[in-house]
Design a protein that fits this description.
543 residues, elongated
Length: 543
């Protein structure tokens, strides 16, 4: 009878820099899956030991010493019947070089270290700043199964690796820290299907899960047989230790596979925002969230997200009406708080607004009323919210969306105040889509919030369309300019008027300085504001 090998893929949520905590967690998974009568392969994602990405922590000597110590500790906990594949930094003896590596351990020894060969240096990735390039493939034989081990970007470039005389293989194990982007889950599967079809191996794809600063890892690890059939897909945005068997160079047919081929992009988008927000706060050792609730769609969706991931007693919403705030706004905000059972309070900004304007009255004498007075209201709200945040220790969530941030339709040090921005990478049209999606699960946002015209309510009878194009038009232009990097003329060719496109582009360019001062938020698009998109604040380039 041929001997089966049990494989455990640990869809793992690391905390960056928490070497002790991550090490203990790794050892616990090894111990919990220990068996004396069957060979085991236990696999962890790319840089699971230290989290992705530690950035300049990698350049510190004390960090490198701690990494080496953790690897030694893990090694001592790997039994004779176990093969451990672990993503971790690999420092040379003299510390002059560093690789992004997969450690292969067995029987308390490091059998081999595979060094990542393709180092991504685009978007949020900056691996060439830290890592040296590996130069050789690695195939291990376990029970007559020839297994190739790669790290993340290597798989996307498999054809180039295969040209380096890689032997025929039975299984390819790819360990990854691949950030979520909308549509990326299905894109991975489609791309790797083609590779599997061409080279005829079984694929074990393991991805990290959880949020780290602006990026979030979706997990969505999967198994694909050599016929490019998806035989299992792990949970999205959840830690999971999935067990299966391999036998005679194939996935064992006595497994009960759970195959989910349908991918709901709105569900994934909402899940990414939830996990990214939750992990940012929890990994920062912060407790409780605070937000200003206006009766508008952005703050309503932010509150719904917060209520899905935090205890109701840890959430506080504050209504900050001005003389221009409608009764409808107050009514809708209070209705949502009652609907969700969260704590809320109402603080009028009228006295603060009057005090500031009276203080500036002499200085502004002879000058007409303009946007300055509108911004004073927004900054009064920011002042009060940040004060409550300081006093209570609750983190202030800023509620702006990508459309507003793109064109500068927000007040610096006002409604832009806050420590984290869940909707930072969500266009206004998608804010509405997500609100409707969430309400289909259960009613968390009053219908009146979704149906009303968006308004900042900083002046009498003020609406967003007084200043901006309708959001369905604005967002199409923004996506073409930001994500697709189209020029003015190319966007006009899509059917938009030149004056409109030019005005939108100029707004984007003028407000780079604002975006540099905005809170971090969850990256969900191909080109988010932050590390993903780096443009000079001062530039005279003509688009």
């Amino acid at each position: 009878m041929k001997e089966k090998v049990e494989v455990v893929i640990a869809q793992f949520n690391s905390i960056v820099g928490d070497l002790c905590g991550n090490t203990d967690k790794i050892i616990n998974i090894i111990t919990e899956n220990r068996s004396l009568d069957i060979k085991k392969i236990i696999i962890f994602p790319e840089l699971a030991l230290c989290g992705y990405s530690p950035e300049d922590l990698l350049l510190r000597k004390d960090f490198s010493i701690a990494v080496k110590s953790s690897i030694e500790k893990i090694k001592e906990n790997v039994g004779s019947n176990e093969y451990l594949i672990l993503g971790a930094p690999n420092y040379s003896e003299d510390m002059s070089e560093l690789w992004n590596s997969a450690y292969i351990m067995n029987n308390k020894k490091i059998n081999h270290i595979y060094n990542k060969q393709f180092l991504p240096n685009y978007g949020v990735f900056d691996e060439k700043r830290y890592f040296s390039k590996g130069n050789s493939n690695f195939v291990i034989d376990i029970n007559n199964n020839k297994i190739c081990i790669l790290v993340c970007e290597d798989l996307w470039n498999f054809q180039n690796l295969y040209e380096k005389n890689l032997d025929d293989i039975d299984f390819l194990i790819s360990i990854n820290a691949s950030p979520f982007e909308n549509t990326k889950v299905s894109k991975r599967i489609d791309v790797f299907k083609k590779i599997v079809e061409k080279y005829n191996f079984n694929l074990i794809y393991l991805n990290s899960v959880g949020g780290q600063d602006e990026i979030v890892f979706d997990g969505s690890s999967f198994l694909m047989d050599r016929n490019s059939n998806l035989v299992h897909r792990c949970n999205t945005f959840k830690e999971e230790n999935y067990k299966f068997f391999i036998l005679d160079k194939e996935f064992s047919n006595d497994n009960t596979y759970r195959v989910e081929t349908n991918i709901d992009e709105l569900e994934d988008l909402y899940g990414a925002i939830k996990v990214g927000t939750y992990d940012y706060i929890k990994k920062s050792n912060l407790n409780g969230v605070l937000l200003g609730l206006s009766g508008g769609i952005d703050s309503a969706l932010t509150l719904a997200i917060a209520s899905d991931i935090f205890n109701k007693n840890d959430i506080e919403a504050v209504l900050l009406p001005s003389i221009y705030t409608s009764d409808l706004s107050i009514q809708l905000a209070e209705e949502q708080c009652n609907l969700l059972g969260v704590n809320f309070s109402t603080i009028s900004i009228k006295d603060v607004d009057n005090a500031i304007n009276n203080t500036l009255k002499q200085r502004f004498d002879g000058l007409s009323r303009d946007i300055t007075e509108e911004n004073i209201q927004a900054r009064a709200r920011g002042l009060l919210l940040m004060s409550i945040s300081n006093k209570t220790g609750k983190i202030l969530l800023t509620t702006g969306n990508k459309s507003e941030l793109a064109v500068g339709y927000s007040t610096l040090y006002g409604d832009m105040s806050g420590s984290f921005a869940p909707l930072k990478d969500i266009y206004k049209t998608d804010v509405y889509n997500l609100a409707k999606f969430r309400n289909k699960i259960s009613r968390v946002i009053p219908e009146g919030v979704i149906e009303r015209l968006p308004t900042a309510e900083l002046a009498q009878d003020q609406y967003d369309i007084d200043t901006l194009p309708q959001y369905d038009i604005l967002d199409k232009i923004l996506k073409a300019f930001i994500e697709e990097k189209k020029s003015l003329s190319e966007i006009c060719d899509l059917g938009f008027e030149k004056s409109l496109v030019s005005n939108v582009i100029n707004m984007v360019i003028r407000n780079e300085y604002k975006r540099r001062q905005y809170a971090p938020g969850v990256k969900v698009s191909e080109k988010s504001f932050g590390r993903d998109r780096r443009f000079p604040i001062v530039s005279r380039f003509k688009y």
